[in-house]
Known about the structure:
The complex is a heterodimer of chains A (72) and B (227). Chain A has three helices and no strands. Chain A is mainly α. Chain A is elongated. The mean pLDDT of chain A is 87. In chain B, 73% of the residues lie in helices and 6% in strands. A two-stranded antiparallel ribbon of chain B has the order 1-2. The longest helix of chain B has 36 residues, at 154-189. Chain B is globular, with a radius of gyration of 21 Å. Classes of the chains: A mainly alpha (72), B mainly alpha (227). Chain A binds chain B through residues 45, 48-49, 52, 55-56, 59-60, 62-63, 66, 69-70, and chain B through 1-2, 5-6, 9-10, 77-78, 167, 170-171, 173-175, 177-178, 209, 212-213, 216-217, 220.
Amino acid sequence: MSLTAIGAGLAAFTGIGAGIGISIATGKATDAVARQPEADGKIMRLLLLGCALAEATAIYGFVVAIMIILFA
Amino acid sequence: MKEMLNELLMEDKTLIHMPFGGGYFDIYASVVVSWIILAVVIVLVLILTKDLKVHNISKRQAALESVVMFLRNLISTIIGEEAGGYTDYIVTVLVFIGLCNMVGLFGFTPPTMDLNVTIALSVMSIVLVEAAGIMKKGAGGWLKSFAHPMAVIAPMNVLELVIRPLSLCMRLFGNILGATVIMELIKHVVPVILPAALSLYFDLFDGAIQAYVFCFLTSLYIKEAVE
């Protein structure tokens, strides 16, 4: 059981990548809106797309962690 | 932890055990919940679209028109002019997934937490994307589009046929499952007040965002396919 827990914990490290990715995307989007407030609709769409793609890695990590807990 | 996951994922999801021919035909809880959602949506549509007029419209019709225009506008700005005909299908999927994700508010298990539902939705999306490409370019042009920027990356383009629906379905499933698991954990630790506040985020906001992201990516793929 202990090794299973360690494996699931390691899979949760995918959250680091997603967190960094989303924070960079949000920071840049804030910059862009500050520079060109009239383009906020377009920026918002691109930001949501980027966040969804970046967040996917964290979700994969979560699915892997659940698989480790359930099937190991 | 493991017991809770088992309860959420591994339990027997059969709700109706119907005799069919020689054996049994199982109907999952997720199917029944989506039937309920469909029934609610159909009744709402029938009530809201009763005696629509061109002039002198009622408040109900004005509200309905603004909601429909908002949803169509949301999708048609992404999907572009060329594939505008697919807007209404995607709006339908958006409404269905959105309601599926939020149905947790009323004490049901969200149907999108069942992998079968998300797989079906993403397979429908990828079939629509490829069909849109074939309708636009013809079968030959569609086959050629696999080698689009250069012939070397054709294997990657073929792999995308599998990766796109896989990531669509896993993203939706994982997000909804994750939200439900976190909510269950919080209900375990603090049974009052806090779950109500967090359910606003996890059920309403996250559900709406995930429905939007699913439709956003589908319409982006369709736009790419008809270019």
